[in-house]
Amino acid sequence: MSSTTSGVIKLHPRTGDGRLAARLKREIEGEVLFDAYSRGRYSTDASIYQLEPVGVVIPKTERDAQIALQIALEEGVAVLPRGGGTSQCGQTVGHALVIDHSKHLNQVVAFDRDARTVCVQPGMVLDRLNAWLKPHGLWYPVDVSTSAQATLGGMAGNNSCGSRSIHYGNMVHNVRAIDAVLADGAEFEFGAVPADLGKFDAPRGYLDLVRKIRAIAAREAGEIEHRFPKVLRRVGGYNLDMLSDAGHNMAHLLVGSEGTLAYSKRIHLNLSPLPKHKALGVCHFPTFFRAMEAPQHIIKLKPVAVELVDRTMIGLARGNPEFRTTVNRFLKGDPDAILLVEFAGSDRDEQLAKLKQLVELMGELGFPGGVVEVTDSALQRDIWEVRKAGLNIMMSMKGDGKPVSFIEDCAVPLEHLAEYTDRLTRVFEKHGTRGTWYAHASVGCLHVRPILNMRADGAHKMRAIAEEAAAMVREYKGAYSGEHGDGLVRSEWIAPMFGPRITRAFEEIKDIFDPRGLLNPGKIVRPSKMDDRTLFRYKPDYAAQKIDTVLDWSEHEGGAEHRGDGFAKAIEMCNNNGHCRKFDAGTMCPSFRATGEEQHLTRGRANTLRLAITGQLGPDAFTSDELYATMDLCVSCKGCKRECPTGVDMAKMKIEFLHHYRQRHALPMRQRLIAYLPRYAPWAARFGWVMNLRDQVPGLAALSEMLLGFSAKRNLPKWRRDAFHLIPSPVTGEGQPSPLKGEGVLNREVVLLVDTFNNYFEPENARAALAVLRAAGYRVHLPRAADSARPLCCGRTFLAAGRVAEAETEARRVIATLKPFIDRGVPVIGLEPSCLLTLRDEFISMLPGGDTAELALNAMLLEEFLAREADAGRLELKLHALPQKKALLHGHCHQKAFAVMPAVERVLRLVPQLEVETIESSCCGMAGSFGYEADHYDVSMKMAEASLLPAVRAADADTLIVAAGVSCRHQIHDGARRNALHVARVLQLALEVSEKRRG
Questions:
Q1: What is the pLDDT of residues 256-294, one digit of tens each?
Q2: Cβ atoms within 10 A of the Cβ of 876, count?
Q3: What span, in angstroms and rounded, lies between the C-alpha atoms of 745 and 727?
Q4: How far apart are CA 51 and CA 527, in angstroms?
Q5: Does an H or E element contain 952, and which?
Q6: What is the C-alpha separation between 90 and 384, in angstroms, rounded?
Q7: Is 478 helix (H, G, I), strand (E, B) or coil?
Q8: How many angstroms separate the Cα of 431 from the Cα of each of 48, 140, 226, 394, 463?
Q9: What is the enclosing helix (H) or strand (E) of 490?
Q10: Under a CB-based contact definition with an 8 Å cutoff, are residues 123 and 102 in contact?
Q11: What is the chain's mean pLDDT, rounded?
Q12: Distances (CA, A) of 681 to 751, 777, 785
């Protein structure tokens, strides 16, 4: 068990765990993780609970998993299978040996297209499976909102449902069979069982099991008929109501059992044809109550989905930069709630006709003109992404009060939905809180999470609200657990909902399967209390250490009484939803995509930081080497800053951590060389021929790897003697601003801020940008530092090394030099995304205040500025078609994080006849100096090979490769032997074509 010291829970090895770990390491190929940091990362899921596991096994093979299971059971240790760890009710946390399937046991084992069946390992993620099935015209239709993270094993354990369950059913309706291992080591295929067992050819042990379970179902038939809710969304307890003497499927008993009955080795699924055509109606309602009255009428049109989004969620989505544009495209006016009604099938005209029927129905219900008809598939997809992110959008609320999961799964018959939601809202008000409603209006299963402070009186209010909600659900003959399972938060409510006889039957089934109670104990039967605070993530004695932070975290502070705790609160914004486990879209989290490891995941880092600053990993954990290893593969892509629905900014957290870490640990020479590069660059460029010898003299690259850690497999950037600032440029307005008054753009003047990398390594990009701006008629200022010293620098390299004070020095130089321009609103234009966007991001965190904020408002990348000018009709740039007719574009991570990519695409399309295709890629893997380091080379290449390099290699020789980041261009050259151009170079080429034609 864990112990407490000074009121803080400590994670440490348990008695006897050394023997278990040693045995596991001897007998399996996979990873065996028993250290405190690993156990801490697996102690939470997306629920309010935190329980320390005994240890973690990441099996490499199915044999590994079975051996780990066998060893644990022989040692008397509980076992907990785990997939994405996104359970909201505490199903995947416990004092047990965790077996994580997501890294290796994630393959398709068998597939029959004609029979529409597939067999998968439990770690297979739903979206990955559906991507694999798409070319065959099939999909697995249990479309949970966490489809990019949820594994099929976890979905089977939960009996997951999804938005379209009204049409396709729940998990239990779509599982054909399960290959399972029992607690005694027996292995059977749980599947269809005929009525006459005498004619059933099956192993004796399996037959005995079937007879026992069937006998229980027959004995309790009357009670089952009386107690089990007659609603589609019913996932509480075990599925006894699906077993009968007339024949049944034994796999259905395992579905929803949360790993308490058997270990699921393989899962056989029934598939559905992909619908060819979809039509979506966004129904607007002036009041929430009227929205809740409508589903009982709408479902008569036979839609495949009817999903609710309420006012609170609409507002939160509008405030999220990832979703704001989409929301504004489908929302009319200021509705109190909307319903997303989807029709789907093989006949397009049929779906459009149903959409028209929906419009007519809404008119009959008193809402003429209340439907926004969406037939564009891309917009439909974007709208569903907003809905799927609903829970996580809610969790983005700052402060101690958070929406808490415990009654969000209640399902009631549709005729009672409006009344139920209205009464429950009154209950919330009585207890001084409110709830945000969303999700499955089609089946009366609305997710609602009251906002509670679980550090204060939240547990007491949770209990009181749960009791009143349960009473209402019983009154309406609904289900208390409708989708997300029982776990630690709802298992306690099985007894009052199902009654004593069914509860005892559940216990009897558990004892038949698991006599010693070692399979995920405490879930479904013999549970703990939902409000046992010793099981909470924020226990009664939870407290974060006060840290003298170097960056500004005030936006996360909860008022004057919480002054100084903003960093801890920012870390706690991670609610473990696992959105960072995406594998095929967006930017985050590139290191997880490459490694598949919880440690190298935004969630894993946030959990480790939280455990460290609360003393749960020891007194010096926050500056430990173990925490450094956890943060090491974060490439500061800032993908989480935009894509994490709760706003976790791990890149900023890494800077804060590195600052404190470097107070105790010296900066290695390699990192010192990179950090201080802007300081010594002016003289290094003058002696470029010496600096470049490393990649010219045989043996020097290997020596640099041995002495400094720079990978010998990489060529380093070449120092240029023709650095941009060393070559005089006859530019009017160079240096100080002109005396012109008024707004800079109207006077057609701009500042071109050339970063260190484009200055000294690729000056042709800066010259191209200068030429383009001058050709467009802008007066270009090339600012010289106010202190007349070296060229200006954003301080990015210092931030990457944790040298925040040095970065502040650079920031002050930039602000002092640019202030005269800033005061007049002159745009400050940059070329390197990581450098220019530092002015909009880290500068504000380091030096919050008026001048910094004004600079952030005026700072923009070249492509942003040109796109803005083009949209305003002010851009006078005469471009002509290039010989190349296609451009393949890779976006820098920071361009994606700051929503700059549409501007890049817009500017490239200014070139006549140029087709622009954007690669769906995450981080290129270079991430500044990251990919140049020998320790990171392999991970860097795995990141690049995920999508970027294959796409570049597949492009024909006449295709332009475009990338804004200097490190991105180097990665493309190293990995695909193609030269990538900055967008400024592409525009310059189009200008040169124009000049040649005029000549």
A1: 999 999 999 999 999 999 999 999 999 999 999 999 999
A2: 12
A3: 27
A4: 14
A5: helix 948-954
A6: 26
A7: coil
A8: 20, 41, 33, 20, 11
A9: helix 487-490
A10: yes
A11: 92
A12: 22, 32, 15
